[in-house]
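STRUCTURE:
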């Protein structure tokens, strides 16, 4: 039994059940009696973690995200908006922490009773915050997956599936060669696991499909890293080339360079990008995209987090949301 079952039987919201258990809000005697009766009828007992929180709830969720200089801030907005909306629905506020204080920052948030739970983003493969997160007295959910996720609840989209979907689309629409726009040295230095996973999945899918494959590695941020990209694609355009771009910035630069070389995206070369639908449809040529489903990832993370706050036992598992491909103007079936 969960707090949701108690809420249904008592005819109240889950947040009301939470308030009865925590004492964080004033509840009428009649409502409290209904909730307590429902708990007895269902033999519902909040776990030790929930009992430990009783009487000291702040009704604040901590959202911790590191923002290095190469971060695509626009890509963070769907996460922030969904996490904030989910929190408001439960009468919680969100405090956004962007300073990279490492483990000390997490311990400060939890140790000073500033927040009731933490959502931790921008997870590196060997993230030094992960060990600290396992020891905190408040629930923690990671958006992202470290190399060692044991003992933590992690939510993300299926990055490997995203790479396979992109290649599958290019092959189905006639591409005989796949070019993956790789990462700049500064991105590789961040040590995000998903970067390597995505690159490996694109390469594996291309090899399995029997098409030629190569990586174009920008050697600097922005336009400066793409100095010979247009000439390279022009050389290969006659062989039906398909391009995979992992970020909106890479999509934008690639499309503009193609057009400057007289190549129309979707005709002289195909492009599949990893980005949201809103971003994909904002380009001059609507981009065939694999959506990382940031809102669904965030919704699942908050569902997991509030389950913990409502007394559910920790699942300590990695939950992946399936990405979704939508064909648009930048891929077209060629005879």
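SEQUENCE:
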């Amino acid at each position: 039994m969960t707090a949701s079952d108690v809420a249904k039987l008592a005819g109240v919201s889950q947040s009301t059940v939470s308030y009865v258990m925590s004492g964080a809000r004033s509840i009428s005697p009649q409502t409290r009696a209904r909730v307590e009766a429902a708990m007895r009828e269902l033999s519902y007992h909040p776990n030790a973690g929930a009992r430990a929180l009783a009487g000291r709830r702040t009704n604040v969720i901590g959202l911790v995200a590191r923002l290095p200089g190469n971060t695509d801030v626009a890509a963070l907005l769907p996460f922030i908006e969904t996490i904030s909306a989910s929190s408001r629905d439960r009468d919680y506020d969100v405090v956004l922490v962007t300073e990279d204080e490492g483990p000390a920052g997490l311990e400060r948030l939890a140790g000073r009773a500033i927040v009731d739970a933490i959502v931790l983003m921008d997870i590196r493969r060997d993230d030094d915050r992960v060990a600290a997160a396992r020891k905190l007295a408040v629930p923690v959910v990671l958006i992202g997956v470290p190399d060692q996720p044991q003992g933590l609840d992690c939510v993300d989209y299926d990055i490997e599936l995203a790479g396979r979907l992109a290649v599958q689309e290019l092959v189905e629409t006639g591409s005989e060669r796949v070019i993956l726009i790789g990462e700049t040295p500064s991105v590789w230095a961040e040590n995000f696991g998903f970067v390597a996973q995505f690159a490996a999945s694109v390469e594996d899918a291309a090899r399995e499909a029997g098409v030629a494959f190569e990586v174009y590695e920008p050697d600097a941020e922005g336009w400066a890293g793409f100095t010979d990209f247009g000439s390279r694609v022009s050389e290969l355009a006659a062989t039906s080339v398909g391009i995979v771009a992992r970020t909106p910035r890479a999509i934008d630069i690639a499309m503009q360079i193609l057009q400057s070389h007289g190549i129309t995206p979707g005709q002289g070369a195909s492009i599949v990008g990893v980005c949201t639908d809103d971003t994909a449809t904002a380009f001059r040529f609507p981009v065939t995209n694999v959506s990382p489903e940031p809102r669904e990832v965030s919704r699942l993370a908050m569902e997991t987090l509030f389950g913990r706050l409502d007394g559910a036992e920790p699942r300590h598992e990695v939950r992946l949301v399936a990405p979704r491909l939508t064909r648009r103007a930048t891929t077209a079936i060629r005879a």
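REMARK: The longest strand covers residues 60-64.
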